[in-house]
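Recall the central idea of this unit: under ordinary conditions, the amino acid sequence of a chain determines the structure it adopts. In this exercise we apply that idea directly, starting from the sequence alone.
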Amino acid sequence: MKRIADHKVGEPVDLYLLIKQSTKGVTTQGSPFMTLILQDKSGDIEAKLWDTKDEHEKTYAAATIVKVGGEVHDYRGKNQLRIKSIRPIKADEGVTIADLVPSSAKSKEVLYEELMQYFFEMQNPHIQRITRHLLKKHQTAFMTYPAATKNHHDYVSGLIDHVVSMLKLGKALAELYPSLNKDLLYAGIILHDIGKVVELSGPIGTQYTVEGNLLGHITIMVNEISKAADELEITGEEVMLLKHMVLSHHGKEEWGSPKRPMVKEAEILHYIDNIDAKMNMLDRALGKTAPGEFTERIFPLDNRSFYKPTFE
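Accordingly, the structure predicted from this sequence is:
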C-alpha cells in the first residue's frame, strides 16, 4: 500500500495518518486555523485545517490517529496535503500508533550495545564515570526518544541512532587525527543531546516540555553534569571540559550555543553533529525523490533543493 512519502504532487490521498504535531494560528483576516504535521512510517507532511473551532483543537490534538482524504500539492517548493476530509479513527478500524510511527532501522538494543563498546576505548576514569552515570540515569528514555521534533532523527529511537552514528564518525576522525582526545570526544558525543529526554515530551506526538522551552537541552545537560560530578565526588578540569563540550556543540551563538568551541574536541563535535544531522535530512529527502529530479526544499539546508543523479 502507498504511504504518504510515496505520493507525488497532484495525487489523491486516502490514508490513516498520525498527527505528529498540531498548532493553532490566525490568518491575517483573523480566521482561526490549525497546522497539522501528519505522519506514517514513510515520513511526514504538513497540512492546514481552515476555519477551525475550539473543539477541533481537542479532536485533532497531537498523537491522534486520523483517516484523511485529500490531495498533495506544491507549496513554495515543499509538498503539502490539501485536506478534503478528516476524522478520528473508529475503535473497530484496528490501526495503532505503532503502525504509523517511524523508527530507527536498527533496534534500540542493538544500538545500545554498539554504543557501550566505545567505553572500552576510554581511559580517563573521571570522564568515563560521569558519562556512564548519566547514560545509566537516563537509559530508558535515551533509547526511545527522538533527537528532535522535526528535521533530523525525529523518530522513535532517533536520539540513540544519531549518537551511535556520530560515534562512528568520531572514531574514524580520531584514527585520522590521533592528537584528538578520544575520551573527551566520545563523552561529548554521548552527552551532548541527552538533555533532550527532559527537553522533549517523548517519542510520540513529540513536543517541547515547559523545562525544554524555558531552559533547553544544553542548560539541562550542563546542570546534569554538575550533579553527576557532585554525586560521584569528582572534581577537576574534566568536569569543566565536559560542560564546555555540551555548551558549545551548536557552534555559534546564533545557532543556540551559549559558547563557541574553544577546545579542539569541541570544534570536531560540532562538525560531527552537523554532518550527521544534515546527512539524515538529505537521505530522507532523496529517498522520496525519483532519479533525475530535485528534492523538495529543505529549510535547514538554506531552503535548497538537491538533485538525485540518474546513475547509481
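The longest strand covers residues 12-26.
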